[in-house]
Amino acid sequence: RLMRQAEKFGRPIITFVDAPGAYPGLEAEERGQGEAIASSLALMSSLTVPVVTVVIGEGGSGGALALAVGNRIVMLENAIYSVLSPEGFASILWKDADEAAGVMKLTADDLLHLGVVDQVIPEPEGGAHVDPRPVYTAVDKAISRHLSQLNREKDLAAHRYQKFRAMGAVREEKET
Fold first, then answer.
1. Is the separation of the CB atoms in 11 and 3 below 8 Å?
2. pTM of the predicted structure, to 2 decimals
3. In sequence order, what are the residues at sequence separation of 6 or more whose Cβ sits closer than 8 angstroms to the Cβ of residue 155?
4. CA-based angle 71:43:161, to the nearest 5?
5. Which end of the chain is less crowded, N or C, counting CB atoms within 10 A of the terminal residue's CB?
6. Phi, psi of 76 (to 5 degrees)
7. How many beta carbons lie within 10 A of that of residue 65, not counting itself?
8. What ranges in the chain are assigned the alpha helix state H?
């Protein structure tokens, strides 16, 4: 509802993601969790206003993805972002969440290198909660900069589509 309202009035959408993962049980599906996530993904894909997503903690599974279909994705340095939590991944393939986390490439630096996120915001030693004011300032500046750049885009839905379509594309590197 709020995303549709933002679009109606031409307002940008800024989402903050800190969702460790949606509960995957039968009860959650009975309450419509999957449909709600799918509806959010579909709506965010078609929005004509700028969408900036900031991953501030743990972004794992559909709950995080439902709010992260942004033209720009920014992450705090110590945040993680993935389609599945390391624990969930480990329960499928291994029994060790640390090993799964390494394979998943879910850190801010990994995701920046892979082109999934557009910017990593540094945190003070010990994390953002130790000294939050400079992190708030950095997040504010990042959002402002990205919105300013996105305001020049002609078709934001197409821009968002191309961004997500390019994720996971294999790039061949020439041997030197």
1. no
2. 0.86
3. 48
4. 40
5. C
6. -70, 150
7. 20
8. 2-8, 26-30, 33-46, 62-65, 86-93, 97-104, 108-114, 132-150, 156-166
Q: Could you give the 3-state DSSP secondary structure of residue 106?
A: coil
Can you read off the two tokens belonging to residue 53?
């997503």
Work out whether the CA dihedral 51, 77, 95, 22 comes out positive or negative. negative
Q: For the stretch 37-49, what's the b/e string if a residue is b when 16 or more beta carbons lie within 10 angstroms of its beta carbon?
A: beebbeebeebeb
Place of tokens 């800190």: 18
pLDDT tens, N- to C-terminus, the chain (176 residues): 999 999 999 999 999 999 877 666 788 778 888 888 889 999 999 999 999 999 999 888 778 888 999 999 999 999 989 877 777 777 777 667 777 777 788 889 999 988 899 999 999 999 999 999 999 999 999 999 999 999 999 999 999 999 988 887 766 666 66
